[in-house]
């Protein structure tokens, strides 16, 4: 087997003189980085299509593919295993193709011109034939036998079956305290920004799950970095999610490809999903209502404090309350008009929830105003404006979490 020269600029293999496919004739599907849509039609002869994203896993992929093939063979359902390799310099695609020669259910896609775990999984699903799609890492850290548990959980009512480290029986082998902290920190940040999505499962960071094709076929999946499950939960038509435990094993060979860049990518991904539902007319209305409520808040304060001569705290409290009520009313009646009708009880419960949450923030605002005026000697109006500017972003984050979470995220 000739070793391909490596292009010094990209560090990638130079394929210019290489014939298509695997030198020994085992078909490797060469694909470029274009994103393909996931079709809604499945091939009736294949039930499960499990995608294995790989980058420089030549030392792990053989063992994984053999044990995965064994597990799936024992399950009794028809299946295909799709390795999506981003043109690994260590020729993981060739090693996988070697296995594919004797295991017809294994396919190898070699993707050039792009990289990324999450997009590799989507690319695999776009080439898949099964009615159930899945993702499992290619380094052996996700135990293949758990696929059988996930398949058993994928009944006709279930949309997504997730292998979780955070349900009873789940866990990680020996992660450092720093890695646990980072993982939990990332999850907490996700809960803050996307509670309706991240809060649906115990392990939203899991890269090991199954999903029914029609859940993702209509969703414009457009992830960043690693978190493919997050993308599916946020954009897919997901109603019922089940979880099964697994222990995240230690890598036998090689190392994780996670870098600091992936944490930034995760943040970008969260922000993109946070804004996504509002990227429409609703966003414009949302922002307009925010401005109107802020102005109403300030005008009410000025009128009561300046004109009526009421004391600072009472004026700010009434003004703040006016802002809250106006925000809720306008969002309900205008910003999100036409969205799913809610029962009166649900509306009252939501209104109370908002009242308590935004009311708490209002109390915080009153405290800030008093400290600024009484301790720092600032003018009432300046103090009012500073407090309003400081609290507003938090109240909107909280507000949308509480009031419109089923609508926005
Ligand atoms: N095709 C492709 N392209 N595959 C990639 C890429 C890429 O750019 N980057 C990584 N992979 C493959 C790896 O080769 C491996 O098979 C799998 O994706 C997971 O990558 P790791 O780098 O080993 O990730 P990890 O072990 O740190 O994190 C994994 O587990 C976490 C906990 O479940 C990932 O699945 C994370 O998404 C997950 O949060
Ligand atoms: Mn790994």
What would your notes on this structure say?
The protein is of the alpha/beta class and 409 residues long. It is 50% helix and 11% strand. The protein contains 14 helices and 10 strands. It has helices at 58-73, 92-100, 117-126, 146-153, 177-193, 195-198, 213-217, 228-235, 260-275, 281-307, 312-335, 344-375, 380-403, 405-408; strands at residues 29-31, 48-54, 79-85, 106-111, 132-135, 160-164, 171-172, 209-212, 241-245, 247-248. The strands form 2 sheets. The protein has an 8-stranded mixed β-sheet, with helices on both faces. It has a two-stranded parallel ribbon with strand order 7-10. Helix 1 (58-73) links the parallel strand 2 (48-54) and strand 3 (79-85). Helix 1 (58-73) runs parallel beside helix 2 and helix 12 packs antiparallel against helix 13 (380-403). The radius of gyration is 26 Å and the shape is elongated. The chain starts with 28 loop residues before the first strand and ends with a helix. The model is unreliable at 18-23 and 405-409 (pLDDT under 50). Manganese (II) ion binds next to loops. Manganese (II) ion binds at residues 137, 139, 141, 251, 256.
């Amino acid at each position: 087997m000739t070793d391909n020269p490596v292009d010094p600029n990209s560090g990638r293999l130079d394929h210019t003189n290489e014939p298509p496919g695997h030198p020994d004739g085992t078909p490797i599907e060469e694909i470029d980085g274009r994103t393909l849509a996931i079709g809604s039609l499945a091939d009736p002869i294949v039930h499960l299509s499990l995608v294995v994203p790989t980058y420089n896993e030549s030392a792990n992929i053989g063992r994984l593919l053999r044990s995965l093939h064994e597990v799936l063979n024992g399950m009794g359902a028809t299946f295909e295993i799709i390795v999506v390799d981003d043109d690994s310099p260590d020729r993981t695609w060739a090693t996988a193709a070697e296995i594919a020669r004797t295991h017809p259910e294994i396919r190898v896609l070699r993707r050039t011109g792009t990289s990324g775990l999450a997009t590799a999984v989507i690319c695999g699903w776009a080439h898949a034939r099964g009615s159930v799609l899945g993702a499992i890492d290619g380094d052996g850290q996700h135990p293949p036998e758990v696929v059988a548990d996930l398949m058993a959980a994928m009944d006709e009512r279930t949309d997504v079956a997730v292998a979780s480290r955070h349900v009873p029986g789940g866990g990680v082998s020996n992660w450092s305290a720093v890695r646990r902290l980072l993982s939990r920190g990332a999850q907490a940040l996700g809960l803050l920004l996307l509670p309706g999505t991240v809060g649906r499962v115990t392990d939203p960071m899991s890269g090991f799950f199954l999903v029914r094709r029609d859940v993702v076929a209509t969703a414009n999946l457009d992830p960043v970095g690693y978190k493919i499950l997050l993308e599916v939960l946020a954009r897919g038509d997901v109603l019922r999610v089940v979880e099964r435990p697994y222990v995240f094993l230690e890598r036998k060979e090689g190392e994780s490809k996670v870098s600091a860049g992936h944490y930034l990518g995760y943040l970008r991904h969260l922000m993109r999903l946070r804004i996504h539902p509002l990227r429409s007319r609703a966003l414009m209305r949302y922002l307009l209502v925010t401005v109107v409520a802020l102005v109403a808040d300030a005008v009410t304060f000025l009128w009561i404090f300046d004109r009526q001569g009421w004391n600072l705290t009472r004026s700010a409290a009434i003004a703040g309350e006016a802002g809250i009520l106006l925000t809720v009313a306008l969002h309900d009646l205008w910003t999100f008009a036409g969205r799913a009708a809610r029962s009166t009880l649900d509306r009252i419960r939501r209104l109370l929830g908002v009242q308590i949450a935004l009311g708490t923030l209002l109390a915080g605002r009153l405290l800030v105003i008093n400290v600024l005026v009484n301790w720092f000697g600032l003018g009432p109006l300046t103090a009012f404006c500073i407090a309003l500017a400081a609290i507003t972003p938090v109240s909107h984050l909280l507000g949308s979490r509480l009031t419109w979470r089923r609508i926005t995220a």
